[in-house]
């Protein structure tokens, strides 16, 4: 897809997914790290729970299909080498403040935390802090407990994914105009995508539901969305209005199983909330549905619930853990996985194929680079002699 | 004068609810002419969901619809009618991109699957996105983004270890998947500039979600650890790191001062309660996480979230109030960045819609715009793109094909 596109990525946590998406789509991505290793190498989890610059699984999982060099960008030699590499590149990705100089055809993507010129532009930030600023955690979790942060850093994923899109948009402009482009990504703003409609409640003169409380579609009753089943939990959506068909089929399934009274077979689920509000309907059918779900689900496994939802066509899904995901026939048979070699020689499955194409396949071409793995070959390609490369190492520039 | 990157690119957006339309919005922000196909009879469910302007429900009043469909034109068709499908086929014939998010098989039943559309338009880039993808034993699963989160493993990870999972906020994969849909479309358009050929793209929303939990996946794949819910500890390698209670009802501040330099700055703010050897080293802070969190909470409780954030940031400590939805609207930093822009929507008047997710210069992205009213582009699209006469359009309308 992107064969021939040359990308330089000055590695930071927020650049990793951007570089990987471009690399998976065929671009030639070269990662620049400081001689002590990129910050991403110190992100857990670690292979066999043993730390080490070659052991970060986050690094291994987010830098496949890239090559890597080390370079001290605080040194004159380092900046010279970076300039020579950038001169030959189409794309440069780096964290703010930008240190590398752009040429006039370069697509220069800069990733920052907050705004470019607003009051929080100089804020010290890490992923949990940026996440708190999106509005998402205040509305995530249980109502009687503190807001919930994500157990896997999300802002770095959000910013990386948006950077990939922005760069490819800028590429279209360059192909047309011939001019280089600057792409600016605010991590906080990118991560606000996960807030979906939350920021719009203010304009609505409304407040979103409090953390831990679903939207009360039907007055007087809290409709749960997570239910216990035999071997874990499942998520289940009881919907009305446009999605009422899902609820009709769910109720029919429960009635057929004997888990819901026959008396509720003819409920108009599309208009049910309105009917309750005007007194044309009681809460009994919805209570019967919820009780029936608790009864039915207690006898089924996560996988059986998933199969029932697919067969009967209602909205339910197993809350899969990572072992479930590894065993899920759908992912395997669809070809999601590619074999990723780890530093110890083992191969693990990587969910590489985030998209499938009628005539292109995302391949695992190379594992994430080891620290400085390609430094010598890249410098030799720039015309540096063997002696010069040794001298750069001796002086801690590479 | 630099035009937006995708000026002149024609997109047919047959998506509904969020993933497909959000993908279309990215392309609209990049300057593409996006025509959203919808129907008054079988209304896009997003038009029935809030929040509504001034809290008053109505299909043209949904702010979620406006922000996800900003800058598009609406073509109102009854897709159950053969004549409507012919119109889509004609439009697909001269479109660059078609996005659809139906359950697999629906487009084929309408005669609008990729192999057939490619016959008349080999340059078409068609993207299909559904929960599980177009292939595999569970391909025909219906679902929304909450279920995508469940299949991606995110729902099970979010919550407290002593309680059932709470899941992430809302229809999570609806915010994740569009990035992968759009990156794939833009890469395919790039290749088309050189080969002249389009392609079909298939993005499973659950698989896209998995990209955002990669560290947890590899912890299992390589180490066999099945990640469990961690509640208030976002990262077991970091302390202090979490949310701390502030003055006021449900007010909190997030602080991450785990790096030694950040800790020293925080300790200067807190003073005596954290002085001494108890919290002097990284390991001491990890081992006494609960006591440390209590000492920090004693300080934060005396301050509002905004005061805590300001004091700590002034000292160089990563900290931010845990923003509530309605705080975002008044956030000075978002305002300075032009995140929200004032637009004028036909039925509801003034409202604030976010701009593009990133800035591109000099080829600027489009400013924020409202979403379309149902069918506001029907006549112009049929005239300009399908070459239909006024008489034919009137006939189709009388016949109920246009609605």
Shape of chain A: elongated
**Fourth-tier CATH superfamily name of the largest domain in chain A:** Crotonobetainyl-coa:carnitine coa-transferase, domain 1
CATH topology of the largest domain in chain B: Rossmann fold
Say what oligomer this is. heterodimer
Mind telling me the C-alpha Rg of chain A?
Answer: 26 Å
Known CATH architecture of the largest domain in chain A: 3-Layer(aba) Sandwich
| Radius of gyration from the alpha-carbon trace of chain B, in angstroms | 25 Å
Gap from first CA to last CA of chain A: 32 Å
Level-1 CATH class name of the largest domain in chain A: Alpha Beta
Structural class by sheet pairing and helices of chain B: alpha/beta
Query: What class do helices, strands and sheet pairing of chain A give?
Result: alpha/beta
Whole-Å distance between the termini of chain B?
Answer: 39 Å
Helix fraction of chain B, binned, reads 25-40%
CATH architecture of the largest domain in chain B: 3-Layer(aba) Sandwich
Keywords, separated by commas or semicolons:
heterodimer, A: 398 residues, alpha/beta, Rossmann fold, formyl-coa transferase, domain 3, 6-stranded parallel beta sheet, 14 helices, 34% helix, elongated, B: 403 residues, 2 domains, 3-stranded antiparallel beta sheet, 38% helix
């Amino acid at each position: 897809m992107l064969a021939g596109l040359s990308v330089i990525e000055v590695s930071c946590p927020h650049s990793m997914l951007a570089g990987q998406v471009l690399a998976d789509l065929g671009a030639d991505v070269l990662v620049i790290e400081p001689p002590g290793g990129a910050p991403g190498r110190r992100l857990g989890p670690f292979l066999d729970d043993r730390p080490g610059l070659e052991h970060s699984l986050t690094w291994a999982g987010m830098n496949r299909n890239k090559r890597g060099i080390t370079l001290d960008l605080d040194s004159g030699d380092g900046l010279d080498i970076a300039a020579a590499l950038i001169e030959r590149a189409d794309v440069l990705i780096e964290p703010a403040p930008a240190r590398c100089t752009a040429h006039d055809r370069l697509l220069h993507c800069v990733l920052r935390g907050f705004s470019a010129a607003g009051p929080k532009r100089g804020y010290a930030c890490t992923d949990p802090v940026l996440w708190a600023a999106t509005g998402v955690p205040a509305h995530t979790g249980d109502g009687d407990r503190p807001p919930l942060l994500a157990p896997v850093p999300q802002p770095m994923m959000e910013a990386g994914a948006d950077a990939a899109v922005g760069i490819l948009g800028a590429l279209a402009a360059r192909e047309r105009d011939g001019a280089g482009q600057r792409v600016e990504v605010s991590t906080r703003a990118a991560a606000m995508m996960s807030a979906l409609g939350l920021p719009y409640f203010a304009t609505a003169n409304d407040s979103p539901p409090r953390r831990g409380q679903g939207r009360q579609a039907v007055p007087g009753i809290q409709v749960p969305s997570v239910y216990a089943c035999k071997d874990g939990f499942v998520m289940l959506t009881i919907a009305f209005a446009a999605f009422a068909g899902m609820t009709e089929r769910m109720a029919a399934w429960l009635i057929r199983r004997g888990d819901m009274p026959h008396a509720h077979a003819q409920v108009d689920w599309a208009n049910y909330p309105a009917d309750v509000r005007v007194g044309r309907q009681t809460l009994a059918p919805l209570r019967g549905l919820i009780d029936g779900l608790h009864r039915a689900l207690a006898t089924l496994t996560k996988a059986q619930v998933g199969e029932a939802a697919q067969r009967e066509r209602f909205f339910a899904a197993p809350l899969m853990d990572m072992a479930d995901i590894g065993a899920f026939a759908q992912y395997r048979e669809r070809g999601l996985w590619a074999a990723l070699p780890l530093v110890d020689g083992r191969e693990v499955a990587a969910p590489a194929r985030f998209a499938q194409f009628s005539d292109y396949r995302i391949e695992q071409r190379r594992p994430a680079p080891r620290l400085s793995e390609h430094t010598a070959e890249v410098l030799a390609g720039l015309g540096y002699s063997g002696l010069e490369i040794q001298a750069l190492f001796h002086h801690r520039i590479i | 004068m630099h035009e937006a990157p995708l000026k002149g690119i024609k997109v047919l957006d047959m998506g509904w609810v969020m993933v497909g339309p959000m993908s279309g919005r990215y392309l609209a922000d990049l300057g593409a002419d996006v025509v959203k196909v919808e129907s008054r009879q079988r209304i896009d469910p997003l038009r029935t969901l809030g929040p509504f302007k001034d809290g008053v429900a109505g299909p043209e009043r949904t702010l979620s619809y406006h922000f996800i469909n900003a800058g598009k034109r609406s073509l109102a068709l009854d897709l159950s009618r053969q004549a409507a499908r012919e119109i889509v086929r004609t439009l697909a014939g001269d479109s660059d991109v078609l996005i659809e998010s139906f359950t697999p098989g629906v487009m084929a039943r309408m005669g609008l699957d990729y192999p057939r559309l490619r016959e008349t338009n080999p340059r078409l880039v068609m993207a299909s996105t559904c929960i599980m993808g177009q292939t595999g034993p569970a391909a025909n699963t219906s679902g929304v983004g909450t279920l995508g989160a469940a299949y991606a493993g995110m729902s099970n990870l979010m919550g407290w270890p002593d309680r059932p999972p709470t899941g992430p906020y809302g229809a999570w994969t609806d915010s994740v998947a569009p990035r992968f849909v759009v990156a794939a479309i833009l890469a395919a358009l790039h290749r088309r500039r050189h080969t002249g050929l389009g392609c079909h793209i298939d993005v499973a929303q659950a698989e896209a979600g998995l990209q955002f939990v990669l560290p947890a996946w590899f912890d299992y794949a390589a180490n066999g650890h099945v990640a469990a819910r961690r509640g208030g500890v976002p990262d077991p390698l970091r302390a202090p790191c979490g949310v701390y209670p502030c003055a006021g009802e449900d007010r909190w501040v997030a602080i991450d001062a785990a790096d030694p330099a950040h800790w020293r700055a925080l300790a200067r703010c807190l003073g005596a309660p954290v002085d001494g050897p108890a919290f002097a080293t990284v390991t001491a802070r990890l081992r006494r996480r609960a006591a440390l969190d209590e000492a920090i909470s004693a300080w934060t409780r005396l301050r509002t979230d905004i005061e805590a954030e300001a004091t700590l940031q002034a000292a160089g400590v990563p900290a931010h109030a845990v923003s509530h939805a309605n705080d975002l609207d008044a956030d000075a930093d978002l305002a300075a960045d032009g995140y929200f822009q004032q637009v004028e929507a036909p039925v509801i008047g003034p409202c604030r819609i976010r701009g593009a997710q990133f800035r591109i210069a000099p080829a600027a992205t489009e400013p924020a715009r409202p979403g379309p009213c149902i069918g506001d582009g029907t006549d112009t699209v049929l005239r300009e793109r399908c070459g239909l006469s006024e008489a034919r359009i009137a006939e189709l309308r009388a016949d109920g094909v246009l609605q």
